[in-house]
Write a structure and sequence with these properties.
Blueprint lengths: L9 E5 L2 H4 L12 H6 L17 H14 L4 E5 L2 H4 L9 H16 L3 E7 L5 H5 L6 H18 L5 E6 L1 H7 L16 H19 L5 E6 L4 E3 L4 H24 L4 H6 L3 H5 L5 H4 L5 E5 L4 E4 L21 E2 L16 H13 L5 E5 L17 H19 L4 E7 L18 E4 L4 E4 L1 H11 L1
Helix pairs in contact: 3-5, 7-9, 8-9, 15-16
Bound molecules: beta-D-fucopyranose.
Beta-D-fucopyranose binds next to loops.
InterPro entries: GH, GH_1_N_CS, Glyco_hydro_1, Glyco_hydro_1_AS, Glyco_hydro_1_beta-glucosidase
Catalytic activity: Hydrolysis of terminal, non-reducing beta-D-glucosyl residues with release of beta-D-glucose
Pfam families: Glyco_hydro_1
Length: 450
């Protein structure tokens, strides 16, 4: 036992291709929806893009050495579909496979186990032009890409996640348009959910083997009602449905939640997709949980301020998030470590033997480099300590939690926020690409190595 955790518990940090790699035009990579979106004026808060990001494409070997030096034994990264198959379908680019082979080998040389995510939101632009996740064909192209990538790399990568947070892909990408491709399609965003999950199922069927473990990373969260009023309880039911049950039910029980389909008027559309459910609900080796915060919701009486505005909660636009007075991070996300326990326990009840990982957990704060060249991020350290303590308690109770990944290894391109939100346990000076281990990273190293 190290600090209350068993040997073999995976201690890692996570990143995602578009957020860290840069080198967007290098070695045959094709354009993704995030290239297009970030280069569209007004889409990114600070007007930046991922063209250079952390230059991880060139600096990965140093970054992995740094990760290993922190005492971490696992690295969760994502693979850019546009590097492997630049047009999304058709010709494979060997240089793309070579890059991820080198990255995985650099992990292994440093005693770090690679955990790869096949899709962390960067859809090849030609596939978006052909309809994106609103069309079924994209799921089939994802299967092809997954099969090629797995065949090329499964000797060096043993742990695979199909999708990262399909909730975000569907409801931010096609719901409120805050993320690429920036579309606002109302309840059609639920069709994207189905095609994403179908893509997951098709990919899993194509790549699963006894040699590795295969799962998916979701962002479920505890949803609380602001009061016991019937309206607030109904609001919580709706948001829990969209956020959690719309993903957990098909993946773990091969069914969609009937109430959500009814709320969104999509009962008939989903009935026509029923034949896909066995594939979507095929057994998983694990679920990855990305946890940041809980949500408390209410259904205010009277009209909402701007009815019909693009929403992340189609069919339940009236529901609002409520401030319960918890302290917040720079993102405005309330801090409640017990929420991590709550959501892990919820999933465990649905699938008692299924191994779970925390595949992302962390916090953004305004970090500054001191005159001594250090970053004293006490608040982030406290956040990590509290959430890791929840994991330790669960593990000591015999709960099947197999690993914890901090988001993120290093500061990076935080999607619609650009570089204005730092989540790293390592600070990145974007002008020089210098890395500085923050106090939270130094604390984690102490925790893991002493
Ligand atoms: C998650 C994303 C990750 C990062 C964190 C802060 O939703 O998976 O890429 O942006 O939030």
């Amino acid at each position: 036992m190290t600090n209350g955790f068993p040997p073999g518990f995976a201690w890692g940090a996570a990143t995602a291709s578009y957020q860290v790699e840069g080198a967007v035009g290098t070695d045959g990579r094709g354009p993704s929806i995030w290239d297009t979106f970030a280069h569209t004026p007004g889409r990114i808060a600070d007007g930046t893009n991922g063209d250079v990001a952390d230059d991880h494409y060139r600096l990965f070997a140093e970054d992995i050495r740094l990760l290993a030096d922190l005492g971490l034994t696992a690295y969760r990264f994502s693979i850019s579909w546009s590097r492997i198959i630049p047009a999304g379908s058709g010709v494979t680019n060997p240089a793309g496979l070579t890059f991820y082979r080198r990255l995985a080998e650099a992990c292994l040389e440093n005693g770090v186990t690679p955990y790869a995510t096949l899709y962390h939101w960067d859809l090849p632009q030609p596939l978006e032009d052909a309809g994106g996740w609103l069309v079924r064909d994209t799921a089939e192209r994802f299967r092809d890409y997954a099969a090629i990538t797995h065949a090329g790399l499964s000797d060096v990568i043993k742990h695979w996640m199909t999708l990262n947070e399909p909730w975000c892909s569907a409801f931010l990408g096609y719901g409120n348009g805050e993320h690429a491709p920036g579309r606002t399609e109302g309840t059609d965003a639920l069709k994207a959910v189905h095609h994403l999950l179908l893509g997951h199922g098709l990919a899993l069927e194509a790549i699963r083997s006894d040699e590795g473990t295969y799962g998916i990373a979701l962002n479920p969260a505890p949803i609380h009602a602001a009061s016991d009023s019937a309206a607030d309880l109904d609001a919580a039911r709706r948001i829990d449905g969209l956020r959690n049950r719309m993903f957990l039910d098909p993946l773990l029980a091969a069914k969609y939640p009937a109430d959500v389909l009814e709320d969104t008027g999509l009962t008939d559309w989903f009935a026509a997709q029923e034949a896909d459910l066995p594939l979507i609900g095929a057994p998983l080796d694990f679920i990855g949980v990305n946890y940041y915060c809980p949500t408390t919701v209410a259904a205010p009486e009277g009209p909402i301020s701007s009815p019909g505005r693009p929403s992340t909660q189609p069919g339940s636009e009236k529901v609002v998030a409520v401030d319960t007075g918890l302290p917040r991070t720079q993102m405005g996300w309330p801090i409640q470590a017990t929420g991590l326990r709550d959501i892990l326990v919820t999933i465990n009840k649905l699938a008692p033997d299924l191994p779970l990982y925390v595949t992302e957990n962390g916090a953004a704060y305004l970090d500054e480099v001191t005159a001594d060249g250090t970053v004293e991020d006490d608040e982030r350290q406290a956040y990590l300590e509290q959430h890791i303590a929840v994991c330790r308690d669960l593990v000591s109770e015999g709960f099947p939690l197999k690993g914890y990944f901090a988001w993120s290894l290093m500061d990076n391109f935080e999607w619609a926020w650009g570089y204005s939100r730092r989540f790293g346990i390592v600070y990145v000076d974007y002008a020089t690409q210098q890395r500085i281990v923050k106090k939270s990273g130094r604390w984690l190293k102490d925790f893991l190595t002493t």
